[in-house]
Amino acid sequence: MSSTADQPLLLLVDGHSLAFRSFYAFSKGGEGGLSTKDGIPTSVTYGFLKALLDNCKGLKPNSVTIAFDTAEPTFRHKADPNYKAHRDVAPDHFFQDLRQLQEILKTQLHLPLCLAPGFEADDVLGTLANRAAADGWSVRILSGDRDLFQLVDDSRNIAVLYMGGGPYAKSSGPTLIDEAGVQAKLGVAPTKVVELKALTGDSSDNIPGVKGVGPKTAISLLKDNDDLDGVYRALAEVEAEGPKASRGAIKGALKAKLANDKDNAYLSRHLAEILVDIPLPEEPKLDLGSVDGDGLSQRLEELELNSLIRQVPNFVATFSSGGLAANAHLLAKAEEPGPAKAEAKPSGPEAASEAESEATSNQTQPVLHPGLVQTPDQLGALITQLMNCRDPLAPVALDTETTDLNPFRAQLVGIGVCWGPNSGDLAYIPVSHRGDPSPEQLPLETVLQAFAPWLASGEHPKALQNAKYDRLILLRHGLPLAGVVMDTLLADYLRDAAAKHGLDVMADRDYGIRPTLFSDLVGKAKDGKASTFSEVPLEQAAQYCGMDVHLTRKLAIDLNKQLEDLGPQLPNLLSNVELPLEPVLAVMEATGIRIDVPYLASLSSEIGATLEQLESKAKDVAEVDFNLASPKQLGELLFNTLGLDRKKSRRTKTGYSTDATVLEKLEHDHPVVPLVLEHRVLSKLKSTYVDALPQLVEAETGRVHTDFNQAVTATGRLSSSNPNLQNIPVRTEFSRRIRKAFLPQDGWKLLSADYSQIELRILTHLSGEEVLQQAYRDGDDVHALTARLLLDKDEVSSDERRLGKTINFGVIYGMGAQRFARETGVSQSEAKDFLSKYKQRYPKVFAFLELQERLALSQGYVETILGRRRPFHFDRNGLGRLSGMDPLEINLEVARRGGMEAQQLRAAANAPIQGSSADIIKLAMVQLQAQLESKHLPARLLLQVHDELVLEVDPNALKDIQQIVVQTMEKAIQLSVPLVVETGIGDNWMDAK
């Protein structure tokens, strides 16, 4: 869920939550903490302001309001004198610190504070969120309190920015909690959070709940009975039925617990519910004011918070309606070196170290002095400078500025380079800027001709961020690019595949630098922005591009060292796989693939007619007129009109969920369900591919040019977009027929080469399972072998072989008995028996998979054959506590009980297999492209989809090329079992399969 462009963003801050977190981060509640030389406490002030700024990175709120508690008792204290009565009273120096913080927030930051006597800050936040959402605002609530999850509402764009850990927890920022996030964290929807607390209570607030009822039981009760009233209605029915109560009903000890604590349950619901319409003493002004930068600097200097003084420009930029425009002098001031000043220190050594680290981690944007190259002499001097740079550990950073993100439509506007660490070691060369008067710049051809030898030289090391884009831009101008020794996008992807890899994100994360964004310069004219980059003034363009290349070079040097520190495999993976693959993908994108547009038009009409037939048939079967595309109407039909099992679904705001997973569970319960499923699949095929592909054909080439994304998936696999060719289904006739629209060059053929069972072969290699190894070496049918072992038969039928195939591939992805039963049609009891037998027959397979789960928990990552790492981040209050343990001492049975984290464990078991498969096909692509180019073969790589490569080939050389493709792919890497490649040839992709 994201804030939309036409919705202003209101940031609500849970002031007391953040203040207490800041206080206890330093003092642990004692007398220590940060203070000035004169003893003025500053823990709350420093921690709050620092955390507020850090957690607002990238938000760009249109308004900020901070809610605090008051000293007066609230209606909750009156309802229950024990409410929060167990909490210690905060010491006086906390309140002294809090008062000075609130004064700074009001007087220097000009942020409205909102307090309501008789109510808590949570009620203030709930009321403000409710009113703002009603007025069309997008609302984000910054807090570390899960109580606020009950306010989350996707339909009204209300979400919580949840701060896990303390205010100095090393993270990329708060976690955005939407409705799905609440479900994942608590196991219930936001509308059920209050009902959950009514049953479980909350020890932190002294809310009693029902004694002996924990979250698991409470979630189950709510799933069956909707809310607290439903639970007690069910209890009354059970009590009325007596011993004849139906199976599965509330009974035994649970029945007694609910009966005994009914009053406490309803009291707890009253205490836990956040009010959303309380009277506020004063309506806060919903817009940003203007931060008093000078006053803030002076006040922070008085409190000896010098590290925050350096952040004043960022406070101004974040919390002022005019950004830095009204306080531009502050940026220069922040850059001026000055005498060292004593920083406020915490009393304890641990806190002192933490504070020092935080105080020095962030920088303002450095001031750069890029040279503008506008004359032939300046251009010649620059090229001479670049030709003298030959150190691969300190490469020249290169960047192109263009008019469009689509490289096939973009016009080159300028080129930026950075060759050293100093503020003047960089230049910007404009080539097609526009303005009145026309800016001074060299002709495009002159610049390209001068740059060509350096760009094409492999002896002159270069670093780029997302080199594939710049390579495509240069290719369109006839310029090859060589000598790329670092792509910071790819290096950061290898460092942490789960992170974001944008240059701005890396700069902020690694250096605390927030560079100017493209969207800050280019946008709508009414916002004072240029419509394209070619209209950006030269000085601004030079600063923007200069910062990009400066950061790219700095990151290139640092990432190279960091990858080496992680071991030799990651630098090798970068040098031998990812960097060589980038130009291969660029050539594939530039080539594109032909599309048969008339055929797709005919197929669209055919699918449209089939959809109408399915819709008519579904209505006849259901005996009701309903809209198949309406989840609400479908839920009403399935669970109310037809009375299907509601336990196979879940409640939503509009009724019952009817997503694909729910419909698959219901597929055999009523004949209308498979018709709805088929209708959905065909509708998506038609809209996503059949009707969309013709719109994506480039007029200049007559081909579709998909984007191959090298740094997106967590597993290391490539993905594709615009269009996404990885997700074309293959199970139905129509989905297979879509492939018929993909054509080779006129007169040529398409060659499809697909790895056979590569993931199962990799699992066999990694696990060392001798039975499977021998079977692959002997060329046996592994699926038939598995079926024979499980069924204790010498011969098996095709259906029985299919059972072996299902379990072989299912084990790789952590398939359980329930899914195995659903896919094969056996009972769950039989499915459990099959899985148990599989484990007995292939013990090393399960030992390997379990070891990966243990390693993910213990060291936080697992590795592929070539050393690619997939990181796993577990909740520090959950499975994260197992970090650093001996992997073999971890109890996996206990660890797997958590819902969301159990999914992560399944992903960890699969990651080395899927990631190794990705590495192998990438290696094969690099080696195959090298052969095609070195031997000048009449063939072109077009697509990579999962384990398949698709080429267009001159039929006169087809036999030789087919042999080269197979040999290259099968010999890409040496495993303990052979790799096997199957090929197909055809006039279109469908026929080649």
Can you walk me through this structure?
- With 993 residues, the protein is an alpha/beta fold.
- Among the domains are: 293-361, no CATH class; 371-592, Ribonuclease H-like superfamily/Ribonuclease H (Nucleotidyltransferase, domain 5), CATH 3.30.420; 595-704 and 712-743, Up-down Bundle (Taq DNA Polymerase, Chain T, domain 4); 744-769 and 850-993, Alpha-Beta Plaits (2-Layer Sandwich), CATH 3.30.70.370; 784-841, no CATH class.
- A six-stranded mixed beta sheet has the order 4-3-1-5-6-7. A six-stranded mixed beta sheet has the order 9-12-11-10-13-14.
- It is globular, with a radius of gyration of 32 Å.
In short:
With 993 residues, this protein is of the alpha/beta class. Helices cover 48% and strands 11% of the residues. Helix 35 (828-841) crosses helix 36 (843-859).
CATH architecture of one domain: 2-Layer Sandwich
Number of strands: 28
Q: Considering DSSP H and I runs of 4 or more, what fraction of the residues is helical?
A: 40-55%
CATH C-level of one domain: Alpha Beta
Strand order of the main beta sheet, please?
Answer: 4-3-1-5-6-7
- Tell me the name of the CATH homologous superfamily of one domain: Ribonuclease H-like superfamily/Ribonuclease H
Shape: globular
What's the alpha carbon Rg, rounded to whole Å?
32 Å
Poorly predicted tracts of residues: 166-171, 322-363
Strand content: 5-15%
Number of helices: 40
- If you consult CATH, what is the topology of one domain? Nucleotidyltransferase, domain 5
Mean pLDDT: 87
Distance from N terminus to C terminus (CA atoms, Å) equals: 39 Å
Q: What does the main sheet amount to?
A: 6 strands, mixed
- Secondary-structure class: alpha/beta
